[in-house]
């Protein structure tokens, strides 16, 4: 059962499209030229690529491709950690990072398969700012990615449609986000024991952080080389 | 903020608003009363309570208020549990006190938040009285730290599943859905940490196989009494896709990668074990 195939591509009324491209590039923190040879080389399907970058599609597809993009980023990150662990990594840390890698691969490949022909291409990542030999650098990035993932799902869920198919996807997003939160807590505890739900991420009402897709891309953008056109993403 | 404009907008969305609030003047008074005493973040909810939409049934027949009352019951349970645990001399060692205090504070905040929101939706129910021994199933829950943590883990993992099970019922109500999900992920952070605490101690079924994430339907707790809280977590097929086969990550990773929901009908019998009749 590939429920995505039954999704309407019509715009859901709650989806507020058209973040202006100029604004979006600004959010991405990359106003200048990207999307030339590298993106073209990475492009497998013609319809995925337009001059403005890789389109996330519309309606629920846009939200799901947004999640797929983040899962691609996380999966690539943990794959590299496991392939070349930081110095001084403990056996338990390596075991848990391998688990996390597998979870993110599961999420990534799930979205790819579920989205089928509506899936965006495989993104090219840019990890040049990360020192994979350094525990501190890797853990700080892992914490940022996991907290970002939690806030991204928390913030994007409201834009999934209220159709039966949309509800099925809302539940799937819910199944994933709590696992990201488990990761986040584990990694935060590695950095500072007891910081699993620190007040930098949980507010005075006991609520976790919520980010709009634009806020998420503003943070994630520096790790994604492929130009993404998020004009169809919801924003508030 | 121009209140008259707000009411004009409310009238447009919900023409019968004054049938419930008598008059614009009463609505104004109600709004002032509510906004005067609640946290800023809760204002959209309290305002929402003045709308027909918030009173309405969701497509599944469960109203938003019903979902919030259900959530409040679970938060009452968790909050009372940690309050009592911390107040019990000699139960929680110094090493665990910081984390348990953090978690207690969040649960208290969730209680306050949900009470406030429900006060704008016709009122919050009072807390039930609890029996955390579950009628004698966990007789040492407040004298044996290992039991205390095991029950805490069960509460947190169950809480995650309970909120997840209500997401679809909140679909279409962006504000409440987002808040519920924001509580949901905090419960998951708690669960992750308590599982790590138990793994480090290594008692009462907590072996090296106990991880921050849930493997198959394994509780990591040496009593079958908690099994209903983990039933169904072993799922490895999502939306028809075999997750275990993806890049051959295997069944353990596939089950861990997706937390599973529990319905109200599944959670309430679990909660009732701890509620005094």
UniProtKB/TrEMBL annotation, chain A:
InterPro entries in the record: Ferritin-like_SF (IPR009078), TAT_signal (IPR006311)
Q: What is this protein called?
A: Ferritin-like domain-containing protein
Q: Which organism is it from?
A: Chitinophaga silvatica
Which lineage?
A: Bacteria, Pseudomonadati, Bacteroidota, Chitinophagia, Chitinophagales
Automatic annotation (TrEMBL), chain B:
- Family annotation (InterPro entries): Ferritin-like_SF
- Per the record, a Pfam family? Ferritin_2
User: Record's SUPFAM superfamilies?
Assistant: Ferritin-like
Name of the protein described by the UniProt record: Ferritin-like domain-containing protein
Q: From which source organism is this entry?
A: Chitinophaga silvatica
């Amino acid at each position: 059962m590939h429920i995505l195939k039954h999704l309407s591509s019509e715009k859901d009324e709650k989806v507020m499209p058209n973040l202006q491209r100029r604004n979006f590039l600004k959010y991405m923190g990359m106003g200048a030229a990207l999307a030339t040879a590298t993106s073209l080389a990475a492009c497998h399907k013609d319809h995925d690529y337009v001059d403005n970058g890789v389109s996330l599609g519309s309606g629920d597809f846009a939200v799901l491709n947004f999640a797929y993009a983040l899962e691609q980023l996380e999966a690539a990150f943990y794959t590299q950690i496991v392939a070349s662990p930081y110095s001084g990594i403990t056996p338990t840390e390596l075991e848990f990072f391998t688990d996390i890698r597998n979870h993110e691969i599961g999420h990534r490949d799930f979205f790819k398969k579920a989205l089928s022909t509506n899936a965006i291409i495989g993104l090219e990542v840019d990890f040049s700012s990360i020192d994979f030999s350094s525990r501190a650098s890797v853990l700080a990035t892992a914490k940022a990615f996991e907290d970002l993932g939690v806030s991204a799902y928390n913030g994007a869920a409201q834009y999934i449609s209220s159709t039966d198919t949309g509800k099925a996807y809302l539940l799937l997003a819910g199944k994933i986000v709590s696992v990201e939160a488990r990761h986040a807590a584990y990694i935060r505890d590695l950095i500072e024991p007891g910081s699993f739900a620190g007040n930098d991420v949980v507010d005075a009402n006991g609520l976790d952080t919520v980010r709009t897709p634009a806020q998420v891309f503003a943070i994630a953008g520096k790790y994604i080389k492929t130009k993404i056109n998020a004009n169809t993403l919801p924003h508030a | 903020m121009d209140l008259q404009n707000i009411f004009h907008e409310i009238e447009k969305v919900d023409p019968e608003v004054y049938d419930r609030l008598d008059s614009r003047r009463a609505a104004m008074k109600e709004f002032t009363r509510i906004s005067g005493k609640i946290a800023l973040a809760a204002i959209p909810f309290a305002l929402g309570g003045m709308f027909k939409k918030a009173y309405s049934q969701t497509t599944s027949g469960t109203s938003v208020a019903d979902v919030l009352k259900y959530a409040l019951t679970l938060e009452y349970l968790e909050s009372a549990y940690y309050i009592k645990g911390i107040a019990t001399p000699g139960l929680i060692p110094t090493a665990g006190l910081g984390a348990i205090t953090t978690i207690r504070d969040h649960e208290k905040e969730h209680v306050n938040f949900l009470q406030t929101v429900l006060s704008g939706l016709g009122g919050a129910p009072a807390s039930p009285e609890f029996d955390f021994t579950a009628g004698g199933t966990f007789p040492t829950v407040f004298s044996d730290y290992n039991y205390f943590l095991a029950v805490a883990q069960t509460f947190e993992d169950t809480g995650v599943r309970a909120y997840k099970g209500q997401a679809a019922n909140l679909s279409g109500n962006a504000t409440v859905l987002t808040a519920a999900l924001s509580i949901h992920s905090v419960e998951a952070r708690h669960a992750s940490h308590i599982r790590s605490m138990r793994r480090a101690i290594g008692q009462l079924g907590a072996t090296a196989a106990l991880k921050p994430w849930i493997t198959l339907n394994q509780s990591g707790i040496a009593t079958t009494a908690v099994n209903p809280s983990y039933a169904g977590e072993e799922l490895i097929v999502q939306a028809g896709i075999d997750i275990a086969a993806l890049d051959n990550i295997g069944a353990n990773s596939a089950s861990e990668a997706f937390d599973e929901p529990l319905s109200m009908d599944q959670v309430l019998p679990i909660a009732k074990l701890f509620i005094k009749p």
